Amino acid sequence: MPTVDFYILAVEDMQQNWLYCCEWIEQHFAKGHRIYIHTASKIQAEELDELLWTFRDDSFLPHTLCYEGLKPVPPIQIGYGQPPQITHDTLINLTDEIPSFFKQFHHVVQFVPNNEQKIVQARNMYREYRAQGCPLNYHDLRKAVTIV
Fold this sequence. Notes:
The protein has helices at 14-30, 42-54, 116-131; strands at 3-8, 35-39, 63-65, 76-80, 90-93, 107-112, 136-140. It is an alpha/beta fold. The chain has one domain (3-143): Rossmann fold (3-Layer(aba) Sandwich). The chain has a seven-stranded parallel beta sheet with strand order 3-4-2-5-6-1-7, with helices on both faces. The protein is globular.
């Protein structure tokens, strides 16, 4: 069963949440992880694809959209609606539902915007993952202190 990490983010703004997601991906890619990012739609996948290329000038994250058919497949893929065609160790789920294929990963990450509706959805997902027997971790980044 995969380990599932929930990150309750400090801001409600989707763009800021995605920037945090990009930074997380960059850190874990540097550690050698293969990452599949599951989005809610083709539009969302394409927006995240663009952000991964541009979120920082000095960053390079080799990635592709699943439906582009790039060979060889880079270690980071973005998709929606269906499972990835190759094996990854980490799933980042950016949707409001648990994907049916989550068990094929070693690690699942759920980023939760600081918004009451999203937090309620995350609580329901947490219960569902727990019922499936997944080890769970909770990270409340709203309490993180930034020193300027």
